[in-house]
């Protein structure tokens, strides 16, 4: 029989953990009663270096109910690394990752399990609508997914990190040793038979978002530079275009100087290109710098997470 493990990263989630664990345990019990999953099924909470009572709550939950397990990271490493720590550590035949705030509809989990039964190794939870997100988040997310696609990154619009993975695919993921992690982009690269389950995303029932704009931006940039070298190619293209363009401009200047008397002692023609080219150069130095810093981080091969304690 299938053993399920729910993998839940938590960062400062003291406000939601009791309610979340109650709902998840009820779901597990229901599935166990129905004979869909084995009695060894578990929940694994990963404390991503929280500064509030998150870890002590996880310890209490563990003491109350052996189905609740916990992993404590030695410090905050961000949602993606916390999730990875959970996936790499949790036992079980199928791992389902979901957020601690239960914005992802847990009633989609039995449907994911059904897809797994009919042969899918990875089941992606995909948001039906985005009506519960703020207008800002909706617009930025939609355009970001479009941008990723134009960069050639395979990504499933509307899918965040709510998914079911079979043991086989988790072991495949283990072979990806990237330090700069963007799971949403890596999982589709694994291959295997996949399926999609649609659900509606609820608003957070308590607490605040742990993803401020700054963290969102970092994740967004990671997504691009971890999977696509297109921005690097741009610099060559734009550089070539500018070079050709400036040759034309030079020809025109020579023509104006020799055959007409339109030439004014050239302030504009010197200063504007200086700013323009300076700007472009700096921009692409930045782009190149982005990739170099990634390479730097990858060559150091530092651990992606450090586990301090396991329950
Ligand atoms: N999270 C984490 N580490 C972080 C930030 C967030 O483990 O540094 C977890 C958080 O506890 C939650 C999930 O990632 O389970 C998603 O965060 P949140 O719900 O705040 O993001 P939003 O839904 O607002 O995008
Ligand atoms: Mg959330």
From TrEMBL:
Annotated localization: Membrane
The molecular function terms of the Gene Ontology recorded here are: glycosyltransferase activity
Q: Which residues form the Glycosyltransferase 2-like domain?
A: 7-172
Is this entry keyworded Oxidoreductase? no
Q: Which Gene3D superfamilies match?
A: Spore Coat Polysaccharide Biosynthesis Protein SpsA, Chain A
Recorded GO cellular component terms are: plasma membrane
Q: What is its main location?
A: membrane
Q: Which UniProt keywords apply?
A: Glycosyltransferase, Membrane, Transferase, Transmembrane, Transmembrane helix
Ranges annotated as spanning the membrane: 238-260, 272-292
Q: What is this protein called?
A: Glycosyltransferase family 2 protein
Q: Which species does the entry assign this protein to?
A: Paraburkholderia sprentiae WSM5005
């Amino acid at each position: 029989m299938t053993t399920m493990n729910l993998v839940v990263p938590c960062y400062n989630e003291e406000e939601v953990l009791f309610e979340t664990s109650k709902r998840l345990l009820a779901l597990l019990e229901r599935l166990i009663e129905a004979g869909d999953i084995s009695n060894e099924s578990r929940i694994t909470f990963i404390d991503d270096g929280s500064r509030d009572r998150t870890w002590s709550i996880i310890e209490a939950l563990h003491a109350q109910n052996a189905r609740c397990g916990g992993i404590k990271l030695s410090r905050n490493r961000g949602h993606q690394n916390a999730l990875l720590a959970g996936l790499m550590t949790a036992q079980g035949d199928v791992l389902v990752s979901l957020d601690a705030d239960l914005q992802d509809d847990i009633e989609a989990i039995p449907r994911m399990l059904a897809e797994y039964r009919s042969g899918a190794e990875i089941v992606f939870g995909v948001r039906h609508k985005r009506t519960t997100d703020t207008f800002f988040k909706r617009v930025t997310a939609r355009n970001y997914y479009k941008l990723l696609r134009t960069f050639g990154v395979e990504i499933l619009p509307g899918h965040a990190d709510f998914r079911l993975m079979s043991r086989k695919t988790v072991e495949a993921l283990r072979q990806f040793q990237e330090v700069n992690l963007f799971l949403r982009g890596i999982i589709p690269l694994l291959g295997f038979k996949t399926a999609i389950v649609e659900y509606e995303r609820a608003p957070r029932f308590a607490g605040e978002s742990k993803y401020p704009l700054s963290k969102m931006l970092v994740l967004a940039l990671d997504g691009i530079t971890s999977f696509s070298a297109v921005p690097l190619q741009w610099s060559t293209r734009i550089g070539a275009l500018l070079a050709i363009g400036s040759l034309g401009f030079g020809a025109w200047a020579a023509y104006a100087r020799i055959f007409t008397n339109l030439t004014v002692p050239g302030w504009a023609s010197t200063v504007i290109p200086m700013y323009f080219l300076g700007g472009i150069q700096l921009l692409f130095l930045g782009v190149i710098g982005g990739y170099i810093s990634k390479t730097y981080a990858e060559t150091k091969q530092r651990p992606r997470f450090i586990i301090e304690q396991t329950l």
